[in-house]
Design a protein that fits this description.
- This protein is α+β, with helices and mostly antiparallel strands.
- It is built from 20 helices and 14 strands.
- The protein has a domain of 275 residues.
- Helix content is 49%, strand content 14%.
- Helix 10 runs antiparallel to helix 11 and helix 14 packs across helix 16.
């Protein structure tokens, strides 16, 4: 097969971009309404050079507040620098118990990941990714590294710049980003030698350095590549920068794995894009905005009504506060126009519409602690309530965790290639152990406590009741070591704080030896006590039938 020329590859990328844009633009109508009524600003969907956001004219900001509460709640409950929100384990839990040092190794990786996340911009960018998904149904984050600083870098793409596609399993595997940068920044990012002759001439003459170039960055899975080649053009995923204005490829390289984390709020089968709470609530949001518009107009009419003014007073009327109007005839007075205007919507109806919008954004769930203080509810009741509501959010949690897992996997791979992660224990080599990410944030914990650890507690209650009836032999069917371990792991207990199986066995053996020694010492002391208690009987004659008499009889028989 003849390899593509650079010109053919550039033309093919342009066609792919146009196809992706056509597919994305089918959703623009709803997305523009989201910008109009929910998003804090309006952007230009067609011109990447127009980077100044504009403010939308709306009559209510309640949907914007609800969206902000949802975004802040998800960040605080799922991926916050102030909480332990992820831990590593294995798909097969037995590897934790059977392979010595595995728990400590996983704990060390977790500490390394948290340290790298803290010195990067992850937590700021994660909020932007979630915010984009709350509004438009998807958020896209690039995970790469800053080579000169030797650290991770996270970049959430602007919604208007992003075009995505999926593989046969509806998993995102393609991202095209169309954006702009100045010629000066292009020289720094790509290198002068990779720019066109005309652009290099501008740089040499220091002309048009602020000229904006439109760039298309295409990342997609290569259909053919040499996995044994060290060349970046033979990596599994292509990374190609295209100068749209000149239809030429600026730079081509690749990635070892898909470098993007894509958070799709509610996937739609057969498409790369999803639904969002803002889109679901659009009909009610439009009504709410219209009602608030009417309320404002009615309030204006009541506060500043139109007036009936006698024609003889034309030009001399004074309707300002504390103004004076002079007239001779009693019927020549200024009167406000009474048009009978009132608000036809009751407060109950208005609140019902507002509550419907609020429900789409799960506001009550994320404000449960505030409501607890207001209603004097117990912490136990609030925990149960949160667990029930968290169960309703299961689909959302699965989709969010999928994106967060991609962030962790990609970060792990980068740190591994940077040799910042130590070699695993010898026992893991060839064991087939697969790393697994478990999420420990309050939202994930609310679900686990409601389902997983709640099931353990109920099971233990059942075991205790059965043991009282059937006796202690009923406990033989339960492995309490494993039960306690799973319960602790479900609650996010530190891996390195759970002892290895061989350490537990050694500890129990030592305890058994100490207990046996203590029992022997107790028996010796008891015997010594008995001997000392019988000291006053040593000179007494042996009574027939006594133990001592029987002992003497046996000894006499043995000597014969």
């Amino acid at each position: 097969m003849r390899p593509e020329s650079e010109k053919e590859k550039a033309a093919d990328l342009k066609r792919r971009y146009e196809n992706l844009k056509e597919e994305r633009d089918k959703r623009l109508s709803d997305w523009k309404d989201v910008q109009k009524f929910v998003a804090p600003s309006v952007v230009n969907w067609d011109n990447p050079k127009d980077k100044v956001p504009k403010r939308s004219k709306r009559f209510t900001t309640r949907p914007t507040q609800f969206a902000r509460t949802l975004r802040s709640g998800l960040v605080g409950y799922s991926i916050s620098p102030n909480i332990v929100w992820q831990k590593l384990t294995f798909e097969n839990y037995s590897h934790l118990d059977k392979i010595y040092g595995a728990k400590d190794w996983l704990e060390e990786i977790e500490r390394k990941l948290y340290a790298e996340f803290a010195r990067s911009n992850l937590y700021q960018q994660a909020g932007l990714m979630i915010d984009s998904a709350v509004q438009y149904g998807h958020g896209v984050m690039l995970i790469d590294e800053v080579l000169e600083d030797n650290k991770l870098r996270f970049t959430t793409l602007n919604i208007q710049e992003t075009f995505i596609d999926t593989d046969g399993f509806d998993r995102p595997d393609t991202v095209f980003r169309r954006y702009s940068m100045t010629l000066k920044k292009a020289e720094t990012f790509f290198g002068k030698e990779n720019l066109s002759d005309i652009q290099q001439g501008f740089i040499e003459r220091k002309e048009n350095l602020n000229q904006e170039l439109t760039i298309i960055h295409a990342v997609y899975k290569r259909s053919e590549y040499d996995k044994d080649s060290p060349d970046s053009k033979n990596m599994p995923y292509a990374s190609i920068y295209l100068d749209e204005g000149e239809d030429r490829i600026i730079l081509e390289s690749g990635y070892n794995e898909f470098p993007y984390a894509v958070f799709v709020w509610e996937p739609v089968a057969g498409t790369a894009y999803g639904e969002s709470p803002s889109i679901h609530a659009l009909d009610d949001i439009r009504i709410l905005n219209k009602l608030d518009e009417q309320k404002i107009r009615i309030a204006q009419m009541a506060g500043s009504p139109a007036y009936n003014v006698p024609s003889s007073m034309r030009g001399s009327e004074n309707v300002v506060p504390n103004g004076y109007n002079y007239f001779e005839k009693p019927d020549e007075i200024i009167t406000p126009v009474n048009n009978g205007t009132n608000f036809p919507i009751t407060l109950e109806i208005y609140k019902d519409i507002e509550d419907r919008v609020k429900d789409w954004f799960h506001v009550d769930f994320f404000l449960a602690l505030q409501q607890q203080r207001a209603a004097n509810m117990t912490a136990t009741y609030v925990m149960e309530l949160q667990g029930e509501k968290a169960a309703v959010l299961s689909d959302l949690v699965v989709n969010l965790n999928s994106a967060l897992e991609k962030i962790i996997q990609r970060s792990f791979n980068i740190l591994w290639r940077q040799r910042k992660i130590t070699e695993p224990p010898v026992g893991l080599a060839g064991s087939g152990a697969q790393l697994k990410v478990e999420f420990m944030g309050p939202l994930a914990q609310a679900q686990k406590k409601y389902h997983q650890t709640g099931g353990i507690k109920e099971s233990l209650s059942l075991i205790g009741a059965v043991a009282q009836i059937a006796g202690p032999q009923a406990l033989d069917i339960v492995d309490f070591d494993s039960t306690l371990k799973r319960g602790l792991e479900g609650l996010g207990f530190a891996q390195d704080a759970i002892r290895e199986d061989r350490d537990i066995e050694a500890l129990r053996k030592q305890r058994a030896q100490q207990q046996a020694q203590a029992e022997q010492q107790a028996m010796a002391m008891e015997q010594q006590k008995q001997i000392m208690g019988n000291m006053n009987k040593l000179n007494e004659p042996v009574h027939p039938g006594s133990t001592l008499a029987e002992l003497q009889k046996q000894m006499a028989g043995g000597l014969q």
